[in-house]
Design brief:
2 copies of one chain form a homodimer. By secondary structure, the first copy, chain A, is an alpha/beta fold. In chain A, about 35% of the residues lie in helices and about 15% in strands. In chain A, helix 1 crosses helix 2, helix 3 packs antiparallel against helix 4 and helix 4 crosses helix 6. Chains A and B meet through helix 3, helix 4, helix 5, helix 6 and helix 7 of A and helix 3, helix 4, helix 5, helix 6 and helix 7 of B.
């Protein structure tokens, strides 16, 4: 991974308190904005990114050069219309695109590495709220996120209920299941099994645990796609050959695809960040934070909620979204829910989907 | 992994031809038997083992000391009754419990390692048929297997239709799907990313790619259990602690379980065998071997078939079993099919299940 280039960067004026009881000193949050902030500051939309996402929601990624990860959703005339809205997207703390994370310098001038405190989704949101404070934004028009971004949106709604008038949660969950944790644990063990990980102190070594990180990414990628989607996309088709090689090269297209996903990822992501962010997701359980009852997390909220799931998402299946909807109903919140049909599983929220566009556009109006 | 102790061992009298076009010289097959063979040799039941299984179906494993992997099913008075049947269970070629595999000596006296030829499920069965020839068993009373064992049972029925009167296939499939291949590819990449793998030449080094193999096993283990089963078994419960540690130890029971499964596995299994056997499974597609139509694979069979699936098995879901049943019906075969309800996903075929016992007992009568 190369050093992340400069984005807009906000230096938190005070130490960031963390759920662990520690505090993060000198934290910075890197962010991008799109569209003008209205004079009354009423048109701010905060977009929260997923595990391996970043602030480049609608602008080219500085390392890969690829278009923003939600360009189809965010821009002039798009469902989240930057002609009308001031869109903010910030890199979460713990990540590696300019916000404070394990690759950042600690007070002794060396990278934190595994000295970085373990953070939670609520800690990430605490950082985002500090950024909103810094930007003078009292209440968001909308907070929106898919996957881990949806966890942040729910956490904001639960813990800072006055800060968002609308909460849009896509392909997400209010808690990580045993299976979710299991997949992340495999990824972490793959990274930590790589000798180049060196207990996290690899930044000065000139090498990094790319092999382990690639395996982690490959395992995760399986969960992002549906079985049906994989079958439709790859089936048992061979890659650039007419017959099986009777060897261990990538004979099948699906093998080639996974290897490509794994190796491409290591160019843009820090392995220690992967450890910290997956840990934060595994710790995520909003009900647990609020006495064990999810409805209590949203008691008295005046925000409007929209919960969206995809029928082929087996990472955060529709049942998890329904669980959130039931809790919001029990809390007396205004909530709409839609399960969209899509062949591509969890990844569907990042892919072209006209009905999703319509749902987002209608809710953000 | 320690060297496998001696089992009964059969030295194939001729080179074993392989689907790759190569032949395996001097192959040996290690096997166990239980119960007496009838004088007319009509009571032989061949049990085919799964990916990481072995010949110790109903006797203690010589390395781990644990009971046989299907003790509850095989023995005096058990559903596969060794008072009546002569049960044969052989280690597949490619494995590491005494049958020829990558850890075996090649003709130059050094381990094959990655010089071992890539094999297929049909090659494994070719080895089993050679063993039956050696034992003088013309026709099996029943061939039975779960998971990869079921693949072998189907392959025997398709390619040597006269060799088994009854074919019992549990929690299996006639082809590996893109998702199945994807999980195996993650495991293989984890092994091959481990520097101790050393391109497979680790046998003389005193070390072995245990870290990579453990990660492979962990990833596979997720597929053996259902989401519901994982939730029931572990949920988000913490392991031996009252609160999250805000660290990277195994806070959750499911993490602890996976780590245990991963590290325990490396004591009894060879990493190269894991590569070869997963490859064989990924190559498995009976229809492809028979001109693209699964029914053609079973044309003219006179065997009776019983196909069993579990409703929570997402590795080889019921739809795959139905696919086999439809093909058998189209081929005019005698086939019964049952989907059993069980909470534990794919692993259910190894766990206590009274209805499975009854189905097996009734079919083998």
């Amino acid at each position: 991974m190369n050093a992340a280039p400069a984005s807009k960067s906000y230096a938190l004026p005070a130490p960031l308190p963390l759920d662990s009881g520690q505090a993060l000193e000198g934290a910075r949050i890197a962010y991008e904005t799109y569209g003008e902030l209205a004079e009354d500051r009423s048109n701010a939309v905060l977009i929260c990114h997923a595990l391996t996402g970043d602030q480049y929601v609608a602008s080219n990624h500085p390392i890969t050069g690829k278009p923003g990860w939600w360009e189809r959703m965010v821009g002039p005339g798009k469902p989240i219309d930057t002609d009308r809205f001031h869109v903010i997207c910030a890199n979460v703390i713990g990540s590696c695109m300019g916000s404070s994370g394990p690759a950042s310098e600690a007070s002794d001038g060396a990278p934190y590495a595994m000295r970085f405190p373990v953070i939670t989704i609520r800690d990430m949101v605490r950082g985002l709220v500090a950024l909103l404070d810094g930007l003078g934004i009292e209440q968001l028009h909308t907070v929106v996120g898919g996957s881990m971004g949806g966890m942040q949106a729910l956490s904001l709604a639960a813990n800072w209920p006055s800060r968002a008038a609308r909460v849009l949660v896509i392909a997400s969950t209010a808690r990580h299941s045993a299976q979710n944790i299991a997949f992340h644990e495999v990824g972490r063990q793959a990274i930590m099994a790589d000798p180049a990980w060196a207990d996290g102190d690899y930044y000065a070594s000139g090498s990094s645990p790319d092999n382990g990180l690639a395996v982690a990414r490959m395992a995760a990628h399986i969960t992002y796609l549906s079985e049906e989607g994989l079958t439709a996309k790859f089936g048992r088709r061979l890659q650039d050959r007419d017959a099986k090689s009777f060897g261990f090269d990538a004979d099948f297209q699906v093998e080639s695809y996974l290897r490509y996903q794994g190796s491409g990822f290591t160019q843009r992501f820090d392995a220690n960040s992967y450890l910290y962010i997956t840990r934060a997701m595994d710790y995520f359980d909003i009900a647990e934070e609020h006495g064990g009852k999810l409805a209590d997390a949203f008691a008295g909220t005046s925000a409007r909620f929209c919960i969206v799931s995809f029928d082929t998402d087996w990472l955060y299946p529709t049942s998890e979204s329904r669980h959130v909807v039931h809790a919001l109903n029990a809390a007396g919140a205004k909530v709409s829910f839609v399960e969209l049909s899509a062949p591509n599983g969890h990844d569907s929220f990042l892919l072209p989907h006209e009905e999703l566009d319509r749902v987002v556009k209608a809710f953000v109006e």
